[in-house]
Amino acid sequence: MTAPRTFAIKSFGCQMNVYDGERMAELLGAEGMTPAASGAEADVVVLNTCHIREKAAEKAYSEVGRLRREDGTRPVIALAGCVAQAEGAEAKRRSKAIDLVVGPQAYHRLPQMLREVEAGARPVDTDLPPLDKFAALPRRRRAGVSAFLSVQEGCDKFCTYCVVPYTRGAEVSRPLGDLLDEAAQLVEGGTRELTLLGQNVNAWEDGSETLATLIRRLAPLPGLERIRYTTSHPINMADDLIAAHAEVPELMPYLHLPVQAGSDRILKAMNRHHTAADYLAVIARVRAANPAIALSGDFIVGFPGETEEDFAATLQIVEQVGYASAFTFKYSARPGTPAATMGDQVPEAVKDERLQRLQALVMEQSRRFNASKVGTETRILVDRVGRKPGQMIGKSPWLQSVFVDTDAQIGDMIDVRLTAALPNSLAGELIARNSKQAA
Ligand code: 5AD
Ligand code: SF4
C-alpha cells in the first residue's frame, strides 16, 4: 500500500468534537495530506464519534460498514472520539475494518498511528493524559469567521446519567497563555467570533484567572468582535462571569445553562448539586445583569423514577424561565453510569409523550422570543451564503440565523432591521454595512 494522501473527517455530537475534528484536519494537513473531495474517495477516513446517547456504538459501527466501496476496497478507517474512548480495543474485535482506535485526548498521535497501520499494525490509544495533545498540535491558521476554542475539557461532576466523565476524563483547564496564543492565531487568520468550549466551561481556571477574566483578556484582540462560551453548569455561574455579561460588550447576550429537570427529587437523583430554586436564582442574577440575554438549556425527560408530577415540574421551570431555545432529550441509559442500573426506568412510550409536550412548549417559547425581535435593529455576523440568489445568512447576538438580501461578504458585521420571525430563524433587511455604532 502506498502512503495515504487524502483524508475525510466525519464529526458527530457536540461542538467539542467539531473543534477536535478541525484540529485533526490541521494535523493531517501538516503531514502533507489533503482533504478528499468526498468521504467515498478518501484514503483515510476518521470517524469522530459521540457516545452521549442511544445506540452510539452501533451507529459508529454501521458508519464503518458504509465505508466499504462497490469494488470491495475501503479506506483506512480511524475510529476516534468518545465511542473510541469507551470501546477501546473492543472496537477492533467488533469490526475488522477498523484500522486504528484513538481517544479524544490522544489524537495528536494520529499521524504516528497511521504510520503504524502502514506497517501492518492496528494501534489503539485511549490514554487520557491531560493537555498533552495541545502542545503537539500545529498552530492555528485559517479557521472560520466563527471558530471554537477548547478551553476546558472533561468533567468531575458525575451527573448520574452522563458518560462524559468516563470518555473525556477529569476536568482540566488549559493554561491562560496557551489560550491567548491560540485565540491570537485564530483572529489573525480571520476569526471574528470565538466560542470558548468546555464540558464545564464556566469552571475554567488558571491560578486566580477565571472564565470572566479570560473573556476580559480576549475582548480587546483587534478584529475579534464577539465572544461566546458553552456549556456551563449552574453551580459554577460565578458573580464575575455574570458581571461580564453586563460589562463586556463583546460578550454576546446568550447563555446556555442546562438545568436538565425541574423536580428537586430528580435533580438529586441526577447528582446535579442544585435545586430548581437555586437555578432560578442564578437566572434572576443573570437577567439583572443583562435583561436582554437569551437563555438556552438542555432537558432530559424520562430519567429513572420520573413521575408525571416530576415532569410537570420540568414544564413549570421552562414556563418560569422563558427560553429563547432549548435542547430536549429522552433519557438514554448509558452503560457504566449509575442511572443505567437505577430501578423504575421509564417506559419508552411515556418518554415519547413527555418529550412531545416539552418540545411543544419550547417551540412556542422560541417562536415568542423570535417574534419579540421583529421590528428591532440589530447587528449580525455574516457567516454563510444563503440558498436564494443574493441572500446571505448571519448570526444575531442571540444566536438565531438571520436571512438578509445583501452583497455583504462572509465575515462582515452588518446592521439589519428584523422583519419577520420564522420558526427557527429571522428575516432582516440591510440598514448599514460595517457600521460602528453598538449593536
Ligand atoms: N440521556 C439523555 N440525554 C443526555 N444528556 C447527557 N447524557 C444523557 C443521557 N444519558 C444530555 C444532557 C446534556 C446534553 C449534552 O446531553 O441534557 O446537557
Ligand atoms: Fe458526545 Fe459528550 Fe463526547 Fe461530546 S463529549 S462527543 S457530547 S460523549
Sum up the structure in keywords.
pyruvate-formate lyase- activating enzyme; 3 domains; about 25% strand; binds iron/sulfur cluster; alpha/beta; 5-stranded mixed beta barrel; Rossmann fold; 14 helices; single chain
By DSSP (H or I, 4+ residues per run), the number of helices equals 14
Present as ligands are:
5'-deoxyadenosine, iron/sulfur cluster
Radius of gyration: 22 Å
Number of strands: 21
Instruction: Tell me what portion of residues adopts beta-strand conformation.
Output: 15-25%
**CATH fold group of the largest domain:** pyruvate-formate lyase- activating enzyme
Describe the structure.
With 439 residues, the chain is α/β, with parallel strands linked by helices. It has three domains: 6-125, Methylthiotransferase, N-terminal domain (Rossmann fold), CATH 3.40.50.12160; 132-372, tm_1862 like domain (pyruvate-formate lyase- activating enzyme), CATH 3.80.30.20; 377-433, Nucleic acid-binding proteins (OB fold (Dihydrolipoamide Acetyltransferase, E2P)), CATH 2.40.50.140. The chain contains 14 helices and 21 strands. The protein has helices at residues 15-30, 56-66, 81-87, 90-94, 110-118, 132-136, 164-167, 176-188, 211-218, 239-247, 264-269, 276-289, 308-321, 348-373, and strands spanning 6-11, 34-35, 44-49, 76-80, 100-102, 124-125, 146-150, 152-153, 172-173, 193-197, 205-206, 209-210, 226-230, 254-256, 294-301, 325-330, 377-385, 391-395, 401-405, 413-421, 425-433. A six-stranded parallel sheet has the order 2-1-3-4-5-6, with helices on both faces. Strand 20 and strand 21 form a beta hairpin. It binds 5'-deoxyadenosine and iron/sulfur cluster. The site of iron/sulfur cluster has 13 residues, from helix 1, helix 3 and helix 7. Catalyzes the methylthiolation of N6-(dimethylallyl)adenosine (i(6)A), leading to the formation of 2-methylthio-N6-(dimethylallyl)adenosine (ms(2)i(6)A) at position 37 in tRNAs that read codons beginning with uridine. One of its GO terms (molecular function) is tRNA-2-methylthio-N(6)-dimethylallyladenosine(37) synthase activity. It catalyses: N(6)-dimethylallyladenosine(37) in tRNA + (sulfur carrier)-SH + AH2 + 2 S-adenosyl-L-methionine = 2-methylsulfanyl-N(6)-dimethylallyladenosine(37) in tRNA + (sulfur carrier)-H + 5'-deoxyadenosine + L-methionine + A + S-adenosyl-L-homocysteine + 2 H(+).
